[in-house]
Design brief:
By secondary structure, this protein is α/β, with parallel strands linked by helices. The protein has helices at about 5-15, 25-30, 40-45, 60-70, 80-90, 120-125, 135-145, 175-180, 195-205, 220-230, 245-250, 260-265, 275-290, and strands at about 20, 35-40, 50-55, 95-105, 105-110, 115-120, 150-155, 160-165, 185-190, 210, 235, 250-255, 270. Helix 1 (about 5-15) runs antiparallel to helix 13 (about 275-290), helix 2 crosses helix 13 (about 275-290) and helix 4 packs across helix 5 (about 80-90). The structure holds adenosine-5'-diphosphate (ADP) and magnesium ion (MG). Belongs to the cation transport ATPase (P-type) (TC 3.A.3) family. Type IB subfamily.
């Protein structure tokens, strides 16, 4: 395409809230064969809320939340924000946490008062040698089947609670994904979340291809793998952990409400946050290439 037609295309896209950083991205968008979508904050709103607190021992919900919030106050993860917000809503005060540590892809640990706390996914419990009884296991699977993310809370080596958060799917994600699929694009979901939750969300939005429990640095590896198979890969994400994958993809799309790092690493930013921006960008790209060869 000529520089003039690219300029026109970039302008047209901008009117639709799609910011295209370079002309090359605009031309490549129509060639995408596989579109990878991050789950949290991309397909979903990225505003998880606490929905269930399953108690394992005699502690009450407020005692549990107060401790978990004290631990999570040091984390910037959206799951942590959901916990702290829920504690705030109940008017609970947090205590000081010591030796706080975030374990990538698993959760957090720290000491509050005289208690050693762990909070995160089942892998975290497994690696810490904390046993999850059958009932807690069943409860967590039920939560995950409802597309919620279950998290396990342990005090001094014993499971104390399972807490679920739900992150609503953006209302137009389903139709936006359908549009991409109708364009012949294979849509793949990538998430650090657990297998069962990922499956439930994928099912709700009509995606059959998904990869769960993907560690932050593995996201870009997935892009590379697909490229090695000959796919022209589009990647859409919002988080810090999506940045390397956004940079590596043939075309990286950032959600406008996402992190600065994601936006800086992407070629195209969807200012409106809606995934319809993807099919819109692709159709502007096609029009640009069609008009001037
Ligand atoms: P994602 O944000 O896509 O879920 P992450 O790698 O950040 O990917 O997290 C993977 C999983 O690790 C989360 O789904 C959660 O189960 C657990 N986890 C990570 N950080 C926290 C945290 N601060 N509190 C509780 N669980 C966490
Ligand atoms: Mg995300």
């Amino acid at each position: 395409a000529t520089p003039m037609s690219v300029m026109v295309g970039v302008g047209k896209a901008a009117e639709a809230g799609i910011l295209i950083r370079n002309g090359e991205a605009l031309q490549n968008a129509s060639k995408i064969t596989t579109m990878i979508l991050d789950k949290t904050g991309t397909i979903t709103l990225g505003q998880p809320k606490v929905t269930d607190i399953y108690r394992v021992n005699s502690m009450d919900e407020n005692q549990i939340l107060q401790l978990v919030a004290s631990l999570e106050i040091g984390s910037e993860h959206p799951l942590a924000e959901a916990i702290v917000e829920s504690a705030n809503e109940r008017g609970l005060q947090t205590d000081k946490v010591e030796h706080f540590n975030a374990i990538a892809g698993q959760g957090v640990e720290g000491i509050v008062g005289d208690k050693r706390l762990f909070f995160g996914n089942q892998k975290l419990m497994l690696e810490q040698g904390i046993s999850v009884n059958k009932e807690a296991q069943d409860v967590s699977l039920k939560m995950a089947g409802e597309a919620k993310t279950p998290m396990f809370f342990a005090i001094d080596g014993d499971l104390a609670a399972v807490i679920a958060v739900a992150d609503p799917i953006k209302e137009d994600s389903i139709s936006a994904i359908k549009r991409l699929q109708k364009n012949g694009i294979r849509v793949v979901m990538l998430t650090g979340d657990n297998q069962a939750t990922a499956k439930a969300v994928a099912q709700k939005v009509g995606i059959t291809d998904f990869f769960a429990e993907v560690l932050p640095d593995e996201k870009s590896q997935k892009v590379a793998e697909l490229q090695a198979q000959g796919e022209i890969v589009g990647m859409t994400g919002d988080g810090i952990n999506d940045a390397p994958a956004l940079a590596l993809a043939n075309v990286g799309f950032a959600i406008g409400t996402g992190t600065d790092v994601a936006i800086e690493s992407a070629d195209i930013t969807l200012m409106r946050g809606s995934l319809h921006g993807l099919a819109d960008a692709i159709s502007v790209s096609k029009a640009t290439l069609r008009n001037i060869k």
